[in-house]
Design goal:
The chain has about 1700 residues and is of the alpha/beta class. The radius of gyration is 40 Å and the shape is elongated. The N and C termini lie far apart (about 130 Å). Helix content is about 55%, strand content about 5%. About 10% of the residues have low confidence. InterPro entries: AAA+_ATPase (IPR003593), ABC1_TM_dom (IPR011527), ABC1_TM_sf (IPR036640), ABC_transporter-like_ATP-bd (IPR003439), ABC_transporter-like_CS (IPR017871), ABC_transporter_C-like (IPR050173), P-loop_NTPase (IPR027417).
C-alpha cells in the first residue's frame, strides 16, 4: 500500500515524510473504524455466539455489585433476591460527570477537526495531483471527529478506554511527524519547514498531550454514597478510586510505604480491602456459580483475571525480546569502521526505543502480575470460605474412629494366603491409593485443607504465568536458532526427548511423594493436636517423654517423605541443569560435523540463545510437578466439599441460600415413624465374614477412613455413637439405632425424657435436631426453624439447645450467654439469677466479664453446664432442648433450677424438652413424659394419662435408682471446683486470660539468623558460601574463554554484537518449586575484549580448524557450573532438614514442658500454628531464601566489578541510581516486614476459631447461628488477606520502580557508550550487558531479602516459644528418689505440709495461707471447701504444679521441691475430673511405657469391672456406645442383677455385646467410650501404677448411678494400701473417710473425722450437711464409720 501511496518510500522507510504522515493518519482512522464497526448491533444468532465467546472476559464482580452484596448481607444477614433489587438502583445510579472535562474533550476535538479539514481542503486546492496528501488529512479529521461525539453521546466520569487508546495513537503520530522534521534537519541537513507548519505540528502535539493528561487524571471509579470520601487513603483503600496515572505508576501504594518506612505499622494503618476483594461478596457470588467440578467453578469465577494474566504475559515476553533486538541494532550501528552521523543518530533512536520497550515490559509485567495476584487472592478467599461453609453444613462425623489399623491386621491375615505375584500387585495398588483423599475428614485434616491446600492452590495461580510464557519463549528462541544454525539447532533437542521418560518417572514419583507427605503431615498434626489438647493430663501422669517420642515418631515419618522429596528434586535439578548445556554442545557438534564453519557471530549468538532457552526449559518440568501437586491439593478440597450435608431443615444456611421456609410449614416439634442411625461415612465395602463361633456377625461401614481424630474432647455430646470396634479375635459390631419413633411434644409445655443409661435419650434430641441419619421408610422430622417469624409471646420459631457436655466459646461468660443476641439487661439478669450463676459470678473477680479459656478451661463442670443452660434460656426461642443439665449440679441447685427456671417466667409458653433422671423432682411441673428403652419409646403420654393408667409409678421407681444417685450428690454449688477463679487478683478492667499474640517489630534480629544457622550447621553454610564463589569464578572463566575463542578466529573487526538476552522466566519460578531456589542466577552477557596476540602467552589453536577444542572446553565449564549448582542444592537441603529436625524437637519439648499457666492462657490454635505453618516454612523455603540472597548479592558485586573495570565512567550514574534503589528498598523492606508479620498473626485466629466451631457444630446449628459464624470468618479472612494482598501490592510497586530505574540505567549507559566509545562495539556490549546484570541483581537481592525476612519470621515465632516459662527439671540426677519411695508401710507422717503459702504471681494475694497438716499412710482423707477456697490448688501443689512461696511439703521424709517433677509425678497418681483417653489401643492408654504384662493389664480391667472375668471371652460395656458421652453404657455381664439391662438394641438374634480387649481401638479423646467407661479406665490406670499416694479429683460429670457405685466400690476395695486424698464435690463420697480437711478462704478451717465435724455446732461441714437435704443419712453413715473405727 505504502509503496503505491508514497512514490519511492517503502512501507517502513520512515525517512520519507510521506510514509511518516501516512502512518500517522491511517492508524487512528483504522482504530476509529473498528470502534464503529463493533458498536453495530449483531443479529440474534451471532449475538448468542458472541456472548458465549466473551463470557470468560466479563468482569466477575464489579465494585457496585460488591458494595451492594456487602451492604445487603450486613443489613439482613441473608442474601435474598428481593433485597437485591432494592439495593441495585442506588448502587448503579451513574456518578456525576464534571462538565468542564466534557467541554475540554469536545472543544479541543472540534478545533483539531476543523484545522485538519481546513488543511486538507487547502492541500486539494494547492496541489490537486496529490490526492493522497489531502485524503490523509481528512482521515485524521475523521478520527478527531469521533473524539467530539464520544463524550457527548456517552459521558463518563471514569477514564474512557477507547478515547485513551485513540489519544495514544494520535500522540505517537504527532511525535513521529515532529520527530521526523527534526531528524531530517539534524542528520541530512534539510532546511526547517515554514514557521506556520512548525507551530501547527507543535500545537497538535501539545493538544494531544493535554488531552492525555486529562484522561490520565480521571479516577478509576467514583465513590458511591456509602463510601466516606474523607476516608479514602486512610481506612478505605485508594486502589479503586485512584487516577489512571496513579494506577499505571502504582503510585497509590506509596503513601503506605512512606508511612511504613519510618514507623512500625499496625492493623489500623493498613487500609481495608477493596469490596471486590472482600471475602463475603466474593463468596456470595462464588456460591451462586454452579459447575460440575470445583475447578470449573474456580475458572468461571476468575476467568477474566486468568485470561488477562495470560495475554499480558505474552505482551511482556514480546517486549522482553525487543530489548536484545534493539541492542543488536545499536551495536551494529556503532560497530562500523567510520560511524556516520546517520548511524549514530539511529543508535540514539534505538536506545530510546529500547528504553520505551523496557518501560512497556515493566508495565505489562506489573499488570499481569496484578491480575494473577487478584485471581490468587480471590481463589484463596473462595476456598477458605467454602471449606468453612461446608463445615457448617456437613454431617457431624466427630465420633468416628480410625479403623485403618484393624483393617491392616485383617488384611495381613488374608494376604498371607495369596500367591506372591497377586500379593505384590495388591501391595502396589494399595501403596498407590494409600494416601488418596478420603471422605470423613477430621478436625486436623479440615484445618490443614484451609491452611495448606487452599494456600497452595492460590500460590500456583499467582505464578501460572511461567507456564504461559515458557513455550512462547522457546518458540521465539527456536526460530532465531534455526536462522543461525539451520536444522542442526534442533539436533540438541533430541536430548530433551531422550530425557523425557526419566523426567516423567520423576514427575510421577513426586506426586506419590507429595500425597505421602501431606498425609504424614496430617497425621503429625493429629498427634500434636491430641498432645496439646490433653497436655495437662499427660503432665499429671508424667508421660511427657512417651508423648514427645510419639510426636517425634510421626515427625520422623514426615521427615522421611521430605527426604524422598528432596532426593527427587535433586534428580530433577540435575536433569535440567545439564540438559541446556548438552543441547548446545550437541547442536555445535552437529553443525561442525556438517562441515560448516562455526564463526564467532554464529557461536556467540547461539550460545546466548541457548542460555535464554535454559530458563524456560527449567520452568516447564518444575511447573509440571507444581501443577500436579496442586491438583492433589484441589482434589483433597473437592472430596471434602462433596461430603454429605445435613438437610435444609437443619441448616439455616441452606434455608437462606434456597428460600425462606414456607409459611404453612407444620408447626411443632416431634418425629413421625422415624428410624435413625448415627452419621457414618458411607463406603461400599464387602461384608467380611471373619467372626468365629457364636459371635459371628458382620462388619458395618460405620468407621471412617479418617486419620486420628484430632481433637481431644470433641464437643458433640451424643450418648450412643457409631461404632466399629473389633477385638483381634472377634469382630462384632454393636450398632445403635433409634427405631420407629413417633412423638409430638406439646406446644408451650414442659416435656420430660427419661430412661436408663444408654437407652437413647441424647440420641432422641439429636434426631429432633436432625443430627442423625434418617433411615429410609417414610419417617420424618417435624421441626421448623424460622427465626424471622415471631409468635404472640415474642418468641422466635427457633431452637435453643444445651448439650450434655457443654460447648463454650473462648470469650467472656457474658458473651457466651448472649451468643450474639442483643443485650437486654433485665432479661440477662433474670437468666443469670434463675440459672444459679449469681453466686458464682459474685465470687469471680471480673464477674461475667471473666474470660473463659478454650473449652471452658477456667470453669468447673457445674459452672460450664449452667452457662450453657443460661445461653439456651436467654435466646428468645420457642423450643428449648436441654440435655440433662441437672446432673452436673447438686440436689440443692437442681431444686433451685426446677423452681426458679423450669417453672419460672423465663420458660413460660415455651416448648421445653428436658432429658433427666430427676423424674420425681420435675414431675409436678411437667405435662408430658417420654420413656426411652433400647432406642425405642417405651412409654409416652401426658402425665395425667400415665397416672390414670398407673404406669407412672414404675417409671418413678426406675428413675429412683438414678435419683438416689442425685440425692447422694450432696455437695452444693459453692463446692464446685474453680480452677482459676481466684488466681490473679487485679481489680482493673477484666483480665485477659489469653494474651494477644506477640508481634516482633523492626528488622529480624541477628540472634534469629544465628539460631537458624546454628541449627542447620555452620559447616554447611561455609561450604555453600565457597560454592557461591566457585560459581562466580566459573561465570568469569566462561566469559574469558569466549574472549579467547573469539580471538582465535583472528578477525576481531568482524566480531558482531555480543547480545545479552535476559530470559523472561526470571528466578521467581524456582521460588515456587519445592520452595527452594537453586542458587545461581546469571544474566548471560557475552563480551569479547579482542586482542591480536594469544592470551596469557599461550599460542591457542586456530578456531576455524579446531572448533571442537573450543566447544569442548566451553562444555566442561558449563557442566562444572551445573555441578556446582547441584552440590549447593544438596548442601542446602541437608542443612534445611537438619534445622527443621532440631528446631521442631526444641519447640516440641519446650511446649510440652511449659508451665500449666502457659497452657491455660494460650489458645491451642496459636501453638498449632507454630507447629503447622511455621515449621512448614522452615521445612520448605527457608534455606532456599537464604542461599538466594547470598547468590544474588554475589552476582551484584560481580557485575559492579566488571563494569568498574571495563568502563569506570559508569560509576557516576551508578552512585545516584544506587541511592535511589536504596531508598526504595528500605521503604519496601520495612513495610513488607510489618505486613507479613501481621499476616502471620492474623492467620492464627482463623484456625483456632475453626477448630472451636468444628467441636460445637451441633450447638451452632441448633441455634441457627451458622450465618453469624460465617460472617465472623469473612471478617477474619479479610483481615489476613488485607495484609497479604497489600504486601504483594508493595512488591509490585517495587518491581515497577526497579524496572523503571533499570531501564534508565541501561539508557544512560547506552548513551554514554554511543557518545564516548568510538568504534568499539565489543566494549559497548560489555557495558550495556553489565548494566543490565547490575539492575536485575539488585531487584532480586531485594526480593529475596524480603522473602528471607518473612521466612525468618517463622524462626522468630518458634524461637520466641523456646523461652517459655518451664516447669522445674524433670529429673535431678544428684537427687534421685529411692526405688521404694514413697513407702506405704505404717508411716504416721507420709505427707507433711508445713506453713504452706502459695501465690500465682508475686504481686497477687496468696491462694493458700499458712496451711499445715500431716497425713498417715493408707489413710483416706477428703478435701472440702467452697469454690475458690483453694482445694484444687492444694491438690496440685502436691504434684508441684505450683511451687510454694513459703513453707514446705514433705512426702515420706523428702522435701518435694528438691526432686525432679518426673520422679515425683511418676510415683504419685492423680486422677482428674474428666479422664482423657488417647488414640491408640486400650493397652497404650493403660500402660504407655509397656512396663506391665498383658495379664496385669487385663487384671486391672477386671478389677474396675470394665471386663468380666470369664476366661473364654471378656464381654464388657459397649466400647463405643457413646461419643463424648455423658451417660455411659451400663456395664454388662458383671452385676446383672442390680442393673437395668438396656443394651439389647439390635433386633437380630445376634448377641449384642461388644468385646473389649487390650487391642480395642480408642479414638482421639476417647470419644468412642462413654464418660463412665473413661472414668473406669482412669481408675484402671491408677491401679496399674500401684502408687502409695493417690490424689483423686472427683468427677462432677454425669455418671449414672450404677457406674458411680462401681467407681466408689473400686476406690474402697482397691486403694486400701494407698493414702487417698479426694477433692470432693459430693458429701456422700467422703462421709465414710478417715478424716476431712475443710478449707475456707485459703486456710484450713476444720480438720477432723467426719463424725466429729458433723457434731460440731455451727461448723462449716455441719452446715453443708444440713443444706444438702439428706442430713440424717449422712449422719448415720458418719456414725457407722466412727463405730467401725472404735472412735465412739
Amino acid at each position: 500500500m505504502g509503496v503505491v501511496l508514497c512514490n519511492e518510500g517503502g512501507l517502513f522507510d520512515f525517512r520519507d515524510p510521506c510514509v511518516r504522515s501516512s502512518w500517522s493518519s491511517i492508524l487512528p482512522a483504522v482504530f476509529v473504524f473498528c470502534l464503529c464497526l463493533f458498536s453495530i448491533p449483531l443479529p440474534a444468532p451471532a449475538q448468542k455466539v458472541f456472548d458465549v465467546l466473551t463470557r470468560p472476559f466479563r468482569t466477575y464482580l464489579t465494585l457496585d455489585e460488591a458494595e451492594a452484596l456487602d451492604t445487603e448481607a450486613a443489613a439482613g444477614d441473608t442474601v435474598n433476591s428481593d433485597e437485591d433489587s432494592n439495593l441495585k438502583p442506588d448502587a448503579t445510579a451513574g456518578p456525576q460527570v464534571p462538565l468542564w472535562r466534557t467541554l475540554v474533550f469536545v472543544l479541543t476535538g472540534l478545533a483539531e477537526t476543523l484545522c485538519w479539514l481546513a488543511y486538507g481542503s487547502y492541500r486539494l486546492i494547492e496541489s490537486p495531483s496529490d490526492t493522497w496528501g489531502a485524503v490523509r488529512t481528512f482521515l485524521v479529521a475523521g478520527s478527531w471527529l469521533y473524539t467530539v461525539f464520544r463524550p457527548i453521546v456517552r459521558p463518563q466520569a471514569t477514564p474512557p478506554s477507547d478515547l485513551f487508546a485513540l489519544y495514544v495513537v494520535l500522540f505517537v503520530g504527532a511525535l513521529l511527524q515532529i520527530g521526523g522534521v527534526v531528524y531530517d534537519h539534524e542528520v541530512f541537513g534539510d532546511s526547517w519547514p515554514s514557521g506556520a507548519v512548525l507551530v501547527a505540528l507543535s500545537g497538535n502535539l501539545a493538544a494531544v498531550g493535554a488531552l492525555l493528561t486529562v484522561v490520565l487524571n480521571m479516577p478509576l471509579a467514583v465513590p458511591s454514597k456509602r463510601v466516606p470520601r474523607a476516608e479514602i487513603g486512610l481506612s478505605v483503600s485508594p486502589e479503586d478510586y485512584t487516577s489512571l496515572w496513579g494506577w499505571i505508576t502504582f503510585n497509590w501504594v506509596y503513601p503506605l510505604i512512606r508511612r511504613g518506612r519510618d514507623t512500625t505499622l499496625d492493623e489500623k494503618d493498613v487500609w481495608a480491602l477493596s469490596p471486590t476483594m472482600q471475602s463475603r461478596p466474593i463468596f456470595t457470588k462464588f456460591f451462586s456459580v454452579q459447575r460440575s467440578t470445583l475447578l470449573g467453578r474456580l475458572w468461571a469465577a476468575n476467568s477474566l483475571d486468568l485470561l488477562l494474566d495470560f495475554l499480558l504475559t505474552f505482551v511482556s515476553v514480546i517486549f522482553n525480546y525487543a530489548g536484545p533486538f534493539f541492542l543488536k541494532r545499536i551495536l551494529d550501528s556503532i560497530a562500523l569502521e567510520t560511524p556516520t552521523p546517520e548511524s549514530r543518530a539511529r543508535a540514539y533512536i534505538y536506545a530510546f526505543l529500547a528504553f520505551v520497550c523496557s518501560l512497556c515490559k515493566a508495565q505489562a509485567d506489573v499488570q499481569h502480575l496484578w491480575f494473577g495476584r487478584r485471581a490468587a487472592t480471590r481463589i484463596r478467599s473462595e476456598l477458605m470460605a467454602a471449606i468453612y461453609d461446608k463445615a457448617l453444613k456437613r454431617k457431624d462425623f466427630s465420633g468416628i474412629i480410625d479403623k485403618g489399623k484393624q483393617a491392616e491386621k485383617e488384611a495381613e491375615a488374608s494376604t498371607a494366603r495369596k500367591s506372591n505375584k497377586q500379593r505384590k500387585r495388591e501391595e502396589k495398588e494399595k501403596a498407590e491409593k494409600a494416601d488418596d483423599p478420603k471422605a470423613g475428614a477430621d478436625v486436623g485434616k479440615i484445618v490443614n485443607l484451609m491452611a495448606g491446600d487452599a494456600n497452595r492452590v492460590s500460590q500456583t495461580i499467582s505464578a501460572l504465568y511461567f507456564i504461559y510464557g515458557a513455550p512462547f519463549e522457546i518458540i521465539i528462541a527456536g526460530t532465531f536458532l534455526y536462522q543461525l544454525l539451520g536444522w542442526s539447532a534442533f539436533s540438541g533437542f533430541f536430548i530433551l526427548l531422550a530425557g523425557w521418560p526419566l523426567n516423567s518417572y520423576v514427575a510421577r514419583r513426586s506426586i506419590r511423594i507429595q500425597k505421602g507427605l501431606l498425609s504424614a503431615r496430617d497425621k503429625r498434626m493429629g498427634v500434636l493436636n491430641e498432645l496439646i489438647g490433653a497436655v495437662k493430663f499427660i503432665k499429671f501422669f508424667a508421660w511427657e517423654e512417651k508423648w514427645i517420642d510419639r510426636a517425634l515418631d510421626a515427625r520422623e515419618v514426615e521427615m522421611q517423605w521430605m527426604i524422598k522429596a528432596r532426593v527427587n528434586s535433586v534428580m530433577f535439578y540435575l536433569l535440567w541443569t545439564c540438559a541446556p548445556i548438552l543441547v548446545s554442545i550437541i547442536s555445535f557438534f552437529t553443525y561442525v560435523m556438517q562441515g560448516k564453519e562455526l564463526t564467532i557471530s554464529v557461536a556467540f549468538t547461539s550460545i546466548a540463545l541457548f542460555n535464554m532457552v535454559r530458563a524456560p526449559l527449567n520452568v516447564i518440568p518444575a511447573w509440571i510437578v507444581q501443577i500436579l501437586q496442586t491438583g492433589v491439593a484441589l482434589n483433597r478440597i473437592a472430596v471434602y466439599l462433596d461430603e454429605d450435608e445435613v438437610t435444609p431443615q437443619v441448616s439455616s444456611l441452606k434455608t437462606d441460600a434456597s428460600h425462606p421456609p414456607p409459611a404453612d410449614e407444620e408447626e411443632g416439634l416431634g418425629l413421625e415413624n422415624a428410624s435413625f442411625k448415627w452419621n457414618e461415612v458411607e463406603e461400599s465395602t464387602d461384608t467380611d465374614k471373619n467372626g468365629q463361633g457364636k459371635d459371628e456377625g458382620k462388619i458395618t461401614n460405620g468407621s471412617s477412613a479418617s486419620s486420628t481424630a484430632a481433637v481431644s474432647e470433641v464437643g458433640i455430646t451424643v450418648e450412643e455413637a457409631p461404632t466399629s470396634e473389633t477385638s483381634l479375635a472377634e469382630a462384632m459390631d454393636h450398632r445403635f439405632e433409634l427405631r420407629d419413633v413417633s412423638v409430638h411434644f406439646p406446644e408451650g409445655q414442659l416435656s420430660v425424657i427419661t430412661g436408663p443409661t444408654a437407652s437413647g435419650k441424647t440420641a432422641l434430641l439429636m434426631a429432633l435436631l436432625g443430627e442423625m441419619t434418617l433411615l429410609p421408610g417414610g419417617g420424618r422430622i417435624i421441626m421448623s426453624k424460622n427465626p424471622s417469624k415471631v409468635d404472640e409471646n415474642g418468641l422466635m420459631h427457633a431452637i435453643s439447645y444445651a448439650a450434655q457436655t457443654p460447648w463454650l466459646r473462648h470469650q467472656s461468660i457474658k458473651d457466651n450467654i448472649l451468643f450474639g443476641y442483643p443485650y437486654d439487661e433485665e432479661r440477662y439478669n433474670a437468666v443469670v439469677e434463675c440459672c444459679a450463676l449469681k453466686p458464682d459470678l459474685d465470687m469471680l473477680e471480673d464477674g461475667d466479664a471473666t474470660e473463659i479459656g478454650a473449652r471452658g478451661v477456667s470453669l468447673s463442670g457445674g459452672q460450664k453446664a449452667r452457662v450453657a443452660l443460661a445461653r439456651a434460656v436467654y435466646a428468645r426461642t420457642r423450643y428449648v432442648l436441654l440435655d440433662d443439665p441437672l446432673s452436673a449440679v447438686d440436689s440443692h441447685t437442681s431444686r433451685f433450677l426446677y423452681e426458679r427456671l423450669l417453672r419460672g417466667p423465663l420458660l413460660a409458653n415455651r416448648t421445653v424438652v428436658l432429658v433427666t433422671h430427676h423424674v420425681e423432682l420435675v414431675l409436678p411441673g411437667a405435662y408430658y413424659l417420654v420413656r426411652m428403652l433400647d432406642g425405642r419409646i417405651d412409654t409416652q403420654g401426658t402425665i395425667k394419662d400415665l397416672q390414670a393408667q398407673g404406669v407412672l409409678e414404675d417409671i418413678k421407681q426406675d428413675a429412683a435408682v438414678e435419683v438416689q444417685k442425685e440425692e447422694m450428690v450432696a455437695a452444693d454449688a459453692p463446692l464446685e471446683v474453680d480452677v482459676e477463679a481466684k488466681k490473679p487478683g487485679d481489680t482493673k478492667k477484666p483480665r485477659k486470660l489469653i494474651k494477644d499474640e506477640h508481634r516482633e517489630t523492626g528488622g529480624v534480629k541477628w540472634s534469629i539468623y544465628k539460631s537458624y544457622l546454628k541449627a542447620s550447621s555452620y559447616w554447611i553454610w561455609g561450604f555453600l558460601a565457597s560454592l557461591v564463589l566457585v560459581s562466580q569464578v566459573l561465570g568469569i572463566t566462561e566469559k574469558v574463554w569466549i574472549m579467547i575463542w573469539g580471538e582465535a578466529y583472528g578477525q576481531p573487526e568482524d566480531a558482531p554484537a555480543i547480545h545479552a538476552f535476559r530470559s523472561f522466566a526470571t528466578r521467581e519460578q524456582e521460588v515456587q518449586v519445592e520452595g527452594y531456589l537453586s542458587s545461581h542466577y546469571h544474566t548471560h552477557g557475552f563480551h569479547g575484549m579482542f586482542a591480536k596476540t594469544g592470551r596469557f602467552g599461550v599460542n591457542w589453536p586456530d578456531a576455524v580448524q579446531h572448533p571442537l577444542f573450543y566447544v569442548g572446553i566451553y562444555a566442561a565449564i558449563g557442566l562444572a557450573n551445573g555441578l556446582t549448582s547441584v552440590c549447593s542444592t544438596i548442601a542446602q537441603y541437608t542443612g534445611a532438614l537438619r534445622a527443621s529436625r532440631i528446631l521442631f524437637r526444641q519447640l516440641l519439648v519446650t511446649v510440652v514442658r511449659a508451665t500449666f499457666r502457659f497452657h491455660d492462657t494460650t489458645p491451642q490454635g496459636r501453638m498449632l500454628n507454630r507447629f503447622g505453618k511455621d515449621v512448614e516454612t522452615i521445612d520448605s523455603s527457608l534455606a532456599g531464601s537464604l542461599q538466594a540472597v547470598n547468590s544474588s548479592l554475589a552476582n551484584f558485586f560481580a557485575s559492579i566489578i566488571t563494569v568498574a573495570v571495563v568502563f569506570p565512567w559508569f560509576l557516576l550514574p551508578a552512585v545516584f541510581i544506587g541511592l535511589a534503589y536504596r531508598e526504595l528498598a528500605i521503604g519496601y523492606l520495612n513495610t513488607g516486614r510489618d505486613l507479613r508479620r501481621m499476616e502471620s498473626n492474623t492467620r492464627s485466629p482463623i484456625f483456632s476459631d475453626f477448630g472451636e466451631l468444628l467441636e460445637g457444630i451441633v450447638t451452632v446449628r441448633a441455634f441457627s447461628a451458622e450465618r453469624r459464624f460465617l460472617d465472623n470468618l469473612h471478617r477474619k479472612i479479610d483481615t489476613t488477606t488485607q495484609m497479604w494482598y497489600t504486601f504483594w501490592m508493595t512488591n509490585r510497586w517495587l518491581l515497577l520502580n526497579f524496572d523503571g530505574l533499570g531501564a534508565l540505567a541501561v539508557l544512560i549507559t547506552t548513551l554514554f557508550s554511543i557518545t564516548t566509545l568510538g568504534g568499539g562495539a565489543g566494549m559497548a556490549g560489555v557495558c550495556i550487558t553489565s548494566a543490565m546484570a547490575f539492575t536485575s541483581s539488585v531487584y532480586w537481592a531485594c526480593r529475596f531479602w524480603t522473602a528471607l525476612e518473612l521466612d525468618l519470621n517463622s524462626v522468630e515465632r518458634i524461637v520466641e516459644y523456646l523461652d517459655l516459662p518451664q516447669e522445674p527439671p524433670a529429673i535431678i540426677e544428684s537427687n534421685r528418689v529411692p526405688a521404694y519411695w514413697p513407702s506405704s508401710s505404717d508411716n504416721n507422717a507420709l505427707v507433711v505440709v508445713e506453713d504452706l503459702v502459695i501465690k500465682y504471681a508475686p504481686d497477687l494475694p496468696a491462694v493458700l495461707q499458712d496451711v499445715s497438716f500431716t497425713l498417715k499412710a493408707r489413710e483416706r482423707v477428703g478435701l472440702l471447701g467452697r469454690t475458690g477456697s483453694g482445694k484444687s490448688t492444694l491438690a496440685m501443689s502436691l504434684l508441684r504444679f505450683v511451687d510454694p512461696t513459703n513453707g514446705r511439703i514433705f512426702i515420706d521424709g523428702i522435701d518435694i521441691s528438691t526432686v525432679g517433677v518426673h520422679d515425683l509425678r511418676s510415683r504419685l497418681t492423680f486422677i482428674p475430673q474428666d479422664a482423657t483417653l488417647f488414640s491408640g489401643t486400650i493397652r497404650d492408654n493403660l500402660d504407655p511405657f509397656g512396663e506391665h504384662t498383658d495379664a496385669e493389664c487385663l487384671d486391672v480391667l477386671q478389677r474396675v469391672h470394665m471386663i468380666s472375668n470369664s476366661p473364654s471371652s471378656s464381654h464388657g460395656a459397649s466400647a463405643s456406645s457413646s461419643r463424648a458421652a455423658s451417660r455411659p453404657a451400663s456395664v454388662q455381664g458383671v452385676e446383672r442383677d442390680e442393673m437395668v439391662d438396656s443394651l439389647s438394641t439390635t433386633t437380630t438374634e445376634v448377641d449384642s455385646k461388644t468385646t473389649i480387649s487390650l487391642d480395642t481401638q480408642v479414638s482421639a479423646g476417647g470419644t468412642n467410650f462413654s464418660q463412665g467407661q473413661r472414668q473406669l479406665l482412669a481408675m484402671a490406670r491408677a491401679l496399674l501404677r500401684r502408687s502409695s499416694i493417690i490424689v483423686l479429683d472427683e468427677a462432677t460429670s454425669s455418671i449414672d448411678f450404677s457406674t458411680d457405685a462401681k467407681i466408689q466400690a473400686t476406690i474402697r476395695e482397691e486403694f486400701n494400701s494407698s493414702l487417698l486424698l479426694t477433692v470432693a464435690h459430693r458429701l456422700r463420697t467422703v462421709i465414710d473417710y478417715d478424716r476431712l480437711i475443710v478449707l475456707d478462704k485459703g486456710r484450713i478451717a476444720e480438720f477432723d473425722t467426719p463424725w466429729n465435724l458433723i457434731q460440731k455446732e455451727n461448723g462449716i461441714f455441719r452446715n453443708m450437711c444440713l443444706k444438702s437435704g439428706s442430713f440424717g443419712e449422712l449422719e448415720t453413715a458418719a456414725r457407722m464409720k466412727a463405730e467401725s473405727d472404735n472412735l465412739i
